Every structure is written in C-alpha cells, then in structure tokens.
Amino acid sequence: MATEAAHGHDQQWLVHHQYEDYEQQSESYIVGMWAFLVTEIMFFGALFLAYVLYRWQYQPEFYLIHKDLDWVMGGINTTVLLFSSLAVALAVRCAMLQDRKGVLGWLTVTQLCAAGFLVIKYFEWSHKYHKGVWLGEGFKWGEGVTKYAQDVSANTAQLFYSLYYCMTGLHGFHVVIGIIVIGILMRMWFKNNPLVTKDYVPTELVGLYWHFVDLVWIFLYPLFYLMPR
Amino acid sequence: MASDSTHLSHNHHVQPVGMYMKVFGALVVLMVATIAVAQVEALKEYSLLNNFIAMGIAVTKATLVVLFFMGVKFSSALTKIFVLLGFSWFFMLFFMFCDYFTRSWEPVPGWTGTSQETAMPRENRWSEGFDRLK
Prior knowledge:
The complex is a heterodimer of chains A (229) and B (134). Chain A is an all-alpha fold and 229 residues long. Chain A has helices at residues 2-12, 22-57, 59-66, 71-96, 100-130, 154-190, 194-197, 201-225. Chain A has a single domain, classed as Cytochrome c oxidase, subunit III, four-helix bundle (Four Helix Bundle (Hemerythrin (Met), subunit A), Up-down Bundle). Chain B is mainly alpha-helical. Chain B has two domains: 1-75; 89-134, no CATH class. Helix content of chain B is 62%, strand content 0%. Chain B has four helices and no strands. Chain B has helices at residues 2-12, 17-39, 47-69, 77-102. At the A-B interface, helix 1, helix 2, helix 3, helix 4 and helix 8 of A face helix 1, helix 2, helix 3 and helix 4 of B.
C-alpha cells in the first residue's frame, strides 16, 4: 500500500489541474485522440465514397486498369506496414514498462519500415510518372501500359489514376507526418524527457496515429491492387 | 522498483508479447488469404462475392488492429464509444448510396446522359458489364 501511495504521488506532478487524477487525465487524452481519428476516418471516408461510386460505374474498366498496378509491390508494402504496426505496439508496451531502450529500439524499427514503405511507393510512382501516367493535362495512356489496360479509354484511366494518386498520396502524406511525429517522440525518449519516460500516454497516442495509417492501407491494398473481375 | 512495475502493469494493461506476435501472424495470414482469393480463376466471374470476401478480410484485419494493437479491447467504456463513433461513417455511406443508386429509377429531363465521360454516376451500368468494351 505504501509503495502504491508513493507511486501515485510520483505521478501527481504530471496531472494538470483540471483533472482529478492520472487515470482520468490519461483517459481524456486517449478519448481525445480517438475523436481526432474519427475525423480522419470521415476525411478518408469521402475519398472511399468517391472510389466506390466510380468503381460501381466503371467496374470492367477499373478491373482492366488495375492490372497495371503491381500487386507484389503492394503486398510487400502491406507486410512492411503490418510489421511497423507490430513494432509500434511493442514500443508502447515498453513505454508502459518504462523500458527506454526497448521503446527506442522498436520505434527505430518503425521508422525503417515507414522509410521502406515510402521508397517502394516512390519506385511505383516514378515508374508511372515516366510513362506519362500522372495527374493533370499531360496524362498519357496507351504506350507502356499492360496489354489489357490499353483497351480502356484515356478518360476512364485518368479517373482511376486520379483516385489512385489522391488516396495513396494522402495516405503517403500521413506516413510522412508519422515519420516526423515518431522522430520527435524518439528525440524526447533519447533526451530522457520525463514527459514521455514517466508517462506512457504520449507514446500511446503516437502509436494510435500510426495504427490508423496502417488501417487505411489495409483497405487501400485490396481495393486498388486486388480488384476482382 | 519491482512493485512499481506491477502497479504499472495493473493500471495500463500490459499484455504479453506473445499476444502481439499472434495478432501479427493472423494479419499476415489474412493478407496472404486476400491475395490468394484475388488470384483464384474460378472466383473471378463472381465479382460481387469476391468483393465481399476481400472486404470481409479487410474488416477482420482492421478489427484485429483496433482491438489488440490499439488496445481498445482493454480500454475504458468511454474510449469504446468513441471508437464505435468511427463506424457511424458507414451508416452515412449507406444513405448516400441509397441516393446515388436509385437516381435512374426516377429520370429527370436533362439528366439522361449515359456517356462514359459524364462526371456523375447517373445510371447503373454494372449490368452491361464487359460487353460495352467490345
């Protein structure tokens, strides 16, 4: 009992004056983060709505165009992101146990996965860019695209690729933000900042954000790379 | 110090590493399953069924991530309510589809364009399928 009381006293300095205790504060932080993630779901949700409407309208065309995407590359990226999610979950676990080395180690693994994801994405995108399959007026369709995809009109292909670039682009942007935020968090852990070493919640919040990035990709991958006929 | 970490474990629901490994294993297996289903020739003619399988697997994967990696299974009731709020989007999606997919039932003069270049989906062209490409 005595140890618990002493421990509770230790954490009291972390508690801001509007909260009763550490538990209430932690719950508020986590609920706040989820409220933010709900707005993110709606943000991406609008794009998923656009996707479903046009996919319904142009299913055969979309099916033929999607053969132009490399499902192996997408599959590698899915594995990389799933593994980064595991690494973050383990980093948060280490943060709960106040294991500084563990947190820094697993967050480094996450950063490497995130960078790897972006490198693969860069290869996919630059390959398309050089073929002229890009956004805007310079959009070229026909040369260099998969045999089946050539049967589709350039306008429909442009529609498909607008959705593809917007959705994977917005997702990629979230990956970049994730790298920056995890970098800041790692710096705080590295400098032994008590805000993160004595309180696991900041690490948990960054972890929640990163899992969300993984969640979006879980849906993007089958929708773009594994389209059924 | 030992009692300190037990205290932390008690409050923050520290889960065994094995649980995270099992969830990761399940996620990878499901990913392989969704790729495999997309490659099955026999299933390719059943687009709708195939979509349901692919999305079913994706939803299962997402649920695993939310419950175990994001720790919602072990979190407070208030947090769970906010997580469920995220799903309210799917209800809104349903009502928007009700609008879009029934427009062709009640034609409006001037809205009858069926050209492939029209921006708004106006008619359900699903049934025409691949025939219109030939």
